[in-house]
Each structure stands twice: as C-alpha cells, then as structure tokens.
Amino acid sequence: MCISINSVDSKSAAVFNEKLYDKVFHALIEDKQLVILCIGTDRSTGDSLGPLVGYKLSNTPIKNITLFGTLATPVHAKNLCETINEIKSRFPNPYIIAIDACLGNVESVGTVCLKDKPLAPGAALKKSLPPVGDISITGVVNISGYMEFLVLQNTRLYVVMNLCEIICRSLYQSITRAQRDVRLLKNDNVFKNTLR
C-alpha cells in the first residue's frame, strides 16, 4: 500500500505524516534505532533526491537518528551493499527508513510515496541491488518508460528540491513528535512503577 503526498494538497500531507508518525512511534516503543538511508548520487539531477534529503536532514536538530547518504558521502549502487552491511554490524535492532528518487507516470511527478515495504534501489535503471528498508519513501522526479538514464540526467532541479522539502518536513515533524510521545509515555510508566 502506498500513501502519497502532493505538494499542493494539505489533506494528503496530514495523512502521510500520521502514517509516518505511527510507524516511527511503534519502532521507538520497541527500542529500535532509527536509521535514515538516503540513496542516490549528486552526479545526476534526477537521482540526487536522496543525497539532498540527507544533506538537509544533517542540518536539522533531529536527535537520536543515524543518517547515511548525503551530498558529501552519497550512498549509491557502488557502495550500497557495503553500507547495508555496516548498518547490520553497527545496530542489532535498526529501523531503516529508505529514501530514493523514482520515475512514474505524468500525473504522479512531484508526489512522494510512503510504502510499508523495502525500497528497490536502481529499479528504474534495471540495476540488481538488494532491497532495503523497513519502510520506504520515494519521490517521483520524472516520467518513466524510455531511456531512463537520460530522463534522470535531464530532470528539473526544481522538482527534486520541492520533493526534498516535502520529505524533510514530514520526517522532521513525524520523528520529533514520535520521540516526544515515546519519551512521555516511558516517563509516565516509570512514574507509575515507582508508585507501586
């Protein structure tokens, strides 16, 4: 199932944020380590969504998350497997939010999709890469169907930046709210236990 958000539809944004909050909240309740994996490369406009999201998130005050994939150190086809292995070795119980650009139909360009399943990175370019993520967030940057490599190379930066803003805003709002609510809940439980 895909929950989509469009930059001009505030109702879809509310539904998207609530779904993302719910996923993050339950992960934190289970004491999972939040890992945000932003996939892509800064060498292609259309494929730069992941690194741009990573760069922007690295400059926000979200605490207690681990971030992979920025403009300075992108995660792409050549180092994705290595990065997945690093995550597995560093975190015994990670909750991975995988983020990547994708191609779609004309009507879906400029939308963001949240799925309850792993990301299939490199699918547009027919690359065989391992699926990754407990949930995935994709931004539709351009139209699929023909010469995808050139389509990604000729994607408007405006579309990518707009998607980046939407994704970062949703992640910031959902994660900080979930962290606050879990902290309050756990503190409340500790307080109740001390009264027994």
From TrEMBL:
InterPro entries reported in the protein's UniProt record: Pept_HybD-like_dom_sf, YyaC
Name of this chain's protein: Sporulation protein YyaC
